[in-house]
HTH arsR-type domain-containing protein
Amino acid sequence: MRPLFHPAIEDVSPEAVLHALSDPSRAAIFANIMRAGCVEACSALSAVGDRVIPKSSLSNHFKVLREAGLIRSERHGIEMRNYSRWAEVNARFPGLLAAIINAYASDAGDTSRSSRTSPPG
Amino acid sequence: MRPLFHPAIEDVSPEAVLHALSDPSRAAIFANIMRAGCVEACSALSAVGDRVIPKSSLSNHFKVLREAGLIRSERHGIEMRNYSRWAEVNARFPGLLAAIINAYASDAGDTSRSSRTSPPG
DNA sequence: TCCAACAGTTCCGAAGTTCCGAACTATGGG
DNA sequence: CCCATAGTTCGGAACTTCGGAACTGTTGGA
């Protein structure tokens, strides 16, 4: 398999980054990679939580993250290792990734939305 | 026309915000509203710059921004005024909007991408 | 009241994107 | 070579986006 395409950091665009992270599954996968430093694609299946993602979709999610410049993928033997490009992206767009990951984290821990299923106890 | 739908701030989700701003036209419109404090929809036609946007698309862009919780639209006589909900959104997702607007601004002023048309002088 | 001009919205078909199961390719072990 | 594992590509259904034409709502003039 020929080497996967990774954009140079100066070709990483804000729209691609925002588009990639505007999908909660992809944001969760990316947050996981950031936390762990590195993650194998198949182990990310469980990482997204409740929702089971078919591997074709997962492959596509990794591709979108990779082509947005958010992760670097390396084949190691039989499996793919995915590393976050946090430092590079953060140097290019200071504070962007942290703010996004934070926004998702605070949203997940939020119980005050009006669409809640049951009223407060 | 009945009042337009605006989500409560606690119902504003990171994915909707990122999706709304992952379109460069919408990001430009929003950046404009932030700068000016308030903008009329039709005057935003020129605001996006080079590209002329048909009014049906423009109307849709404003709708996406409004339903993502980024702007508040009010009808004043014949025209619509659009205000940024920056303070509210910033309280909910600290630093997010500033980082995004900054990212687009630094990207626009960037001359180092490899897809440039001419080499450095 | 009727009409024209203007500001935005809605409708709807064409074009593009996303989703995911099935088939495929690449790597490693026996 | 054959099988198992890890991931990619294909292709069709479902969804989204774009934009022109027609529409609604508001103002001002006669």
User: Anything to note?
Assistant: DSSP finds six helices and three strands in chain B. The longest strand of chain B covers residues 71-76. Residues 116-121 of chain B have pLDDT under 50 and may be disordered.
